[in-house]
Amino acid sequence: MIEQIGAFAGLAAFLGLAVLALLSFTHSRDIRRLREWAGSAPERDAERKEATSATAAQRAEELRELEQVRTAEREALDEREERRRRREAGLPETGRGERLRSGLAGIGDRLAEPRYLVGLFVVLLVAAGAAAFLVLGGSENGAQAGGGGQGGNAKQQQQQQTQAQPTPAGEIEVSVLNGTAVSGLAATVGDQVEGAGFGLGAVGNTAGGFSESVVMYERGSAPEAKRVAKALGIQKVELITAEVEGVAEGATVAVVVGEDDASAAG
Fold first, then answer.
1. What is the pLDDT of residue 133?
2. Are strands 236-239 and 214-217 parallel, antiparallel or unpaired?
3. What is the pLDDT of residue 166?
4. Whole-angstrom Cα distance, residue 227 to residue 167?
5. Cβ–Cβ under 8 Å, residues 223 and 252
6. Mean pLDDT by 10 residues, the chain (266 residues)
7. How many other CB atoms sit within 10 Å of the CB of residue 148?
8. First vs last Cα of the chain: how many Å apart?
9. Which H or E run includes 135?
10. Which candidate, 226, 232, 235, 234, places its Cα nearest to that of 253?
């Protein structure tokens, strides 16, 4: 009996030692993992900070792009509102400065193309050759003429005047003013001015009434005024008055629509 109890006690002790060894192994493994986790804390903090910084930078970039889009939308809305206001006031949708900037920008874009660059280079070469030829030819003619005097100078001036070219229509700024009580008449004639190829300036009304349509011009711009009058079928051409000059906003030629052309409003 005692031998059996001893055998059972020995077996129980063996099983207890096995369980204790297993628990000790498990405890050691957990302690090792805990130490490894605690030792990697600085790396985790660095990774967390890096992820937070990247997220913040991405968010800031998104906000900046959104602000740019909103700014562009506000500018476009302001531009449309300004054009609407100018239309209601009987003025061109774009001012003279804006049209000039737009034209220069278009020229710059075209010059950036390879074909235009090649063409410009060829033109510059031709111009340089022509200038060199004129300089050399002028020197030889001067040496041969000797004391040609005033007769030669007068002949050269006559040749220069003969070779002078008229101002392109697009460079002649024409202001259109309504000298009648018919609403929208200046805008209608302004369309005719642009249709004829001239540059349209200020469009508005005169302080007083005009019975006849007239094309007025600033000093030195009589030929341009006659071209405008011929294109619009207006017979009367005269020097600009102080009243019309005050509302023409610097245009060299001003068309004042009178009662005789009031039917053009229809």
1. 80
2. parallel
3. 80
4. 10
5. no
6. 68 77 81 75 72 86 91 88 80 65 64 72 85 71 49 54 70 91 88 91 89 92 93 92 89 91 62
7. 13
8. 135
9. helix 114-145
10. 226
Amino acid 173: pLDDT: 92
Q: Which residues of 124-134 are buried (b: 16+ CB within 10 A; e: fewer)?
A: eeeeeeeeeee
Residue 17, CB half-sphere, CA atoms under 13 Å: how many? 6
Structure tokens at 159: 């040749």
| Contacts (Cβ under 8 Å, ≥6 apart) of 228 | 172, 174, 193, 196, 198, 215, 234, 253, 255
Say what angle helices 41-88 and 2-39 make with each other, to 10 degrees.
40
d(CA 189, CA 170): 16
Instruction: Name the residue with tokens 């005169």.
Output: 206
* Lookup result for tokens 């040609």: 148
Q: State the residue for tokens 């030819």.
A: 137
In the chain the domains, ranked by start, together with CATH numbers, are: 89-137 (no CATH), 169-265 (3.30.70.2390)
Whether residue 210 contacts residue 252, with contact meaning beta carbons closer than 8 Å, is answered with: no
pLDDT of residue 132: 82
Q: Is the distance from CB of 178 to CB of 257 less than 8 angstroms?
A: yes
Write out the H or E segment, with its range, that includes residue 38: helix 2-39
Maximum CA pair distance of the chain?
A: 159
CA 120 – CA 2 distance, rounded (Å): 121
**What confidence score (pLDDT) does residue 14 get?**
75
- Environment class of 4 (CB within 10 Å of its CB; exposed 0-12, middle 13-18, buried 19+): exposed
pTM over cut 0.70: no
Q: What is the pLDDT of residue 228?
A: 93
3-state secondary structure of 237: strand
Helix then strand then coil, % of the chain, to nearest 5: 70, 10, 20
